[in-house]
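User: Show me an example of a complex going from sequences to structure tokens.

Assistant: Sure. Here are the input components:
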Amino acid sequence: MKALLDNLSKALESRVRLAAMSVLMVNDSMDFNSLKDLLRVTDGNLATHMAVLEREGYVRVQKRFVGKKPQTTYAATRGGRAAFEEHVDALERLIQAGRR
Amino acid sequence: MNDIENGLKEVAEIRSMMERSSKFLSLSGLSGVSAGIVALAGWAWALSYLDSRFGPGTEGVVNHRDILSFMLASALVIVAAVGAAMFFSRRLAKRRGLALWNATARDTLAALLIPLGSGGLFSLILMRQELYGMIPSAMLLFYGMALVNAGKYTVHDLRLLGLCEIVLGLIAGLLPALGLWFWAAGFGLLHVIYGVAMYRKYEK
């Protein structure tokens, strides 16, 4: 059992970070506010979690101005996608092992 | 097994996030029902208008006034149907805590509008060529293709509605004299049936 848990990504242990990565797996990019609406979290909470994902190299951050407002957009990196897939594979194995 | 329960919960969360963020899910079934009712009202008006102008004992030559009346009525039907659709979809989005306007709403709209705009223009061309009998067929065909196209970005069931509209449009093309009846079946009846089915499936 222990070995099965090893492949689960630490960075994706958090609900919010897992949800954010799920969104970025199926969308090329997503701006901060849309992501916040989808995940139903506060500004500060999302910013903290996204910073962790950025530090891990899972997401790429782009900041730019739309009119006078700054807009932050996130996209999954290649490494982030691989880590997410590994995490899901590990989950799959874990569930299968439990069913046997 | 706590780990397994957690794992399953995580998988459910991943699935829901992927779906919610990549599909436009606020299209309410009630939008379909209201669009269908508006279409049937338009159809009833068209039948009585045609009967009074071209029925037995009338002289029956299409003039500019007739064309203008039909264009105005079509515009009214479209505005009423779209207005009702937006009202119910906004309500549904609010109830689900989603934003009505997002990236997927934009994709859905673009997927709809390109075939729909072409169909609208093509119908005007048919009108100009005085091929009135083919207009219902063209409207059904282009609308069906618009729905099949938009089905990629919203509930998959929309594609089925689109395919039904295409089939009706093809038959209507073979039977131009019955065009209005196929129009009423496609835009009225099918919308109501689809709307009720969607409401029961997703909004109950």
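The lines above are the inputs; the final block is the predicted structure for all two components together. The helical segments of chain A are 2-6, 15-26, 32-39, 43-55, 78-99.
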